[in-house]
Write a structure and sequence with these properties.
By secondary structure, the chain is mainly α. The chain contains 18 helices and no strands. The chain has one domain. The C terminus is likely disordered. Its main location: membrane. This is PST family polysaccharide transporter.
Amino acid sequence: MQVVKNYLYNAFYQIFILLVPLITTPYLSRVLGPTGVGINAYTNSIIQYFILFGSVGVNLYGNRQIAFVHGSREKMTTTFYEIFFLRIITVACSFIAFLFFLRLVKQYHTYYWAQSLSLFAAAFDISWFFMGIENFAVTVLRNFVVKVLTLVSVFVFVKDQSDLGIYILILSMSLLLGNLTLFPSLRKYIGRPVIKHLNIWQHFLPSIALFIPQVATQIYLVVNKTMLGVMASVQASGYFDQSDKIIKMVLAIVTATGTVMLPHVANAFAQGKIEKAKNYLYSSFSFVSCLSIPMFFGVMAVADKFVPLFFTRRFQSVAPLMMIEAVVIVLIAWSNAIGTQYLLPTKQTRAYTTSVILGAMINIIINVPFILLWGVIGAAFATVLSEMTVSGYQLWSVRRQISYKRLFRDNNRYIIAGIVMFLCVRLFDYNLAANWWALGIEVLAGISVYGIMLFVLRVDIVKDAVQLFSHRRR
């Protein structure tokens, strides 16, 4: 039950931190327009590279290392401060590199400075510690107030396109405040560090091992916006960013299991319980497939109606992008289950690293001809192909460790249920007017049809849920 509780906390947190920009997006689409949204997407994609290089894989590495020493206050104290000080140093080096970058570029300086506060905020991100000790409540509760303040600030201070710099500054400040509010909770778990006993650099090379796949991952997360901004226009970058926001919000519900399960599997692996770790993978893979497959079909079914209602008709180009990108909801759910929830906690970093490097290479290589030929649509197809590469390699890398039959045991039933749901939603979509009430009816109909189909097809996850509920009632 602790895993379920942590999943719900983390799912709520991931959804909430995405809901703030999601709630503001319809307003900002109207106020800032495609150009303002595009400038923000492009400049943010640039600053993300500096944040990435400043973080050197600490989030995943720190999460895992804290999970390994969980239970010893002394070891947690030492491990936390060694990793925290390492991150301070690396972020400082990255900021110096950012200053050199500013001397080379000739436009958007004001926006880059506003974005750079996010880099400063990265130095104080200690969410990895609380994820390592499996305390997800503190990150949810403490960031809730900060995010609400962000939401209010956007509506109060951002009135037209000239306020784009203020908008970026508000988002950056929210990251910094959110990270700083976590520090008071540390006292419950760690003590004061003995500086002379700290060995900061012992963590550098191991974190670099996890940093390499994060570089690759980040590249194919943001390189599309960067390349679109350079090769096409900032408006194209903005269209892709809007599509990305919706897909990531949907993904947050699914990938929340990754952060929750990593310390759990790492702890089982540290105790030599290999079969237990594999069983976690089978259960988690089935769970994320059960969620991601209907979400994929659902996004495809409602995109045409959703986009003009949510973004305005000026962003109509986002609809086909969402339909194409919807495929990655399933692909990333699978790679999250295999990579984040199994390969990393069982110390199979090389396989994980290779998969994301291959994905990044495929994305960069095919982005150039695809963007030149088809513009922003080409970038969306490049994203799908890169995610197929990642998931495909990870599945191949565990072929001798797991049973594919157990891994995919109910996926055909999830797909059948998803197709039936898709057809029903499209039927509603064709016959209902284009308004929010109609969209809400379509979503509820889709959920209902999919749920009924799971019962009809008698999938194992439903039977397990029924047994768990019956057991708890007794």
